[in-house]
Amino acid sequence: MLSKTISSYKVAYTGLSKETWLLSLIMLINRSGTMVVPFLTLYLTSPTMGYSIGDAGLVFGCFGAGAFAGAFVGGRLTDKIGFYKVQLAALGGGAILFFVLSFIQSFYLICLFTFLLSFVNEAFRPANSTAIAFYSTPENRTRSYSLNRLAVNLGWAVGSAMGGIIAKFSYQWLFWVDGISNFLAAVLMVLFLKQAAARHTAERKEVQKTDLSPEGPSVYRDYPFYVFILLVTLFAACFFQLFTTLSVYFKQVLHFTEPQIGMLMAFNGVLIVLVEMILIYQLEGRRNQLTYIAIGVGLVGVFYLLMGLGSIALPMAFALILIITAGEMLAMPFMNSFWINRSSAHNRGQYAALYTMAWSAAQTLGPLLSSQLAETAGFRFTWFVNGAICLLVAVIFLQLKRRAYF
Question: Is the CB of residue 183 less than 8 Å from the CB of residue 92?
Answer without folding.
Answer: yes
